[in-house]
Amino acid sequence: MTSQKNLTPRTWSELILLGVIWGMSFLAIRIALDTVPVITSVFHRVFWAALALWLVIGFQRLPIPRDLHIWGVFLVMGLLNNVLPFSLMAWGQLYVETGLTSILNAATAIFGVLLAALFFRDERLTKTRALGVGLGFLGVSITIGLKQFGSLNPSNLGQVAILTGTLSYAFAAIWARAYMSALPPQIAAAGMLTGSAILMAPIMLVVDGVPTFALPLETWSAIAYYALLATAGAYLLYYRVLQRAGSGNVLLVTLIIPPIAILLGAVVRDEALPPRAFVGFAVLALGLLILSRSRNRD
Questions:
Q1: Phi, psi of 135, deg, nearest 5
Q2: HEC profile for the chain?
Q3: What is the pLDDT of residue 2?
Q4: What pLDDT is recorded for position 24?
Q5: If pLDDT is split at 50, 70 and 90, which confidence band does 1 have?
Q6: Which of 182 and 24 is assigned the larger pLDDT?
């Protein structure tokens, strides 16, 4: 059992900032995809983010892990938390609106609760959590409109890819708790991203070829944003908020992200979501609020 942590005004501000940063990342990724192939865009994200975090670690003079076992753990974590979800969700964004992608991304918390209950004894699926999970899946079902899957098309496949990516995120959380909880967050994030870059490099060379650096300024700005701020910087801020707010309260960031992404998608890319997306998000948000409160009480 853990004590409930209250959100101070400073923690609230950091939580909102994290939600805004991640909410804006969906637009930045979509802008980059206009000129950069999916796999290359993911390589840019993990490579530059890893480099930035190692610079932070060097400045802080933190010890670098030398155990090969730990680096094996980093490779698996990079596969689950970056390579698979980043690639699947980036491909999905080619066919799915920015705001809708951000709504489906919130399913990570729902899958996370279910998998935690399967793998860890102290994460039992109580009645309250079951209600939250049920509402979460109902919200996702409403959002994607299950009747739309009567015939497969790129949009439907894109939504499946995004949801598969959120499932991979959930498995990554299980892996991190089991094998990385003792590591400083800076080291864990940098090692994970380095493992991701190692895995992505040969895939990129085979699928996309050698990346070009002759990209428009808009593309480089988008890459810089989602790699340095929305990945490297956001990981550091996330762990800070997690420590201050607790795992229950940090779930609230998933409620902040979609409105930001929906607004930017509408303003910048003239995207319009169907009414069911907003209804689905409202039901999903209710489920997430219930899960957040249940984690605070447990």
A1: -65, -35
A2: CCCCCCCCHHHHHHHHHHHHHHHHHHHHHHHHCCCCCHHHHHHHHHHHHHHHHHHHHHHHCCCCCCCHHHHHHHHHHHHHHHHHHHHHHHHHHCCCCHHHHHHHHCHHHHHHHHHHHHHCCCCCCCHHHHHHHHHHHHHHHHHHCHHHHHCCCHHHHHHHHHHHHHHHHHHHHHHHHHHCCCCCHHHHHHHHHHHHHHHHHHHHHHHCCCCCCCCCHHHHHHHHHHHHHHHHHHHHHHHHHHHHHHHHHHCCHHHHHHHHHHHHHHHHHCCCCCHHHHHHHHHHHHHHHHHHHHHHHC
A3: 42
A4: 95
A5: very low
A6: 24
| Token pair recorded at residue 200 | 């992505």
Question: Quick one: pLDDT at residue 148?
Answer: 66
Tell me the domain boundaries of the chain: 9-112+154-273
pLDDT higher than 70, residue 120: yes
Average pLDDT in the 108-115 region? Answer: 88
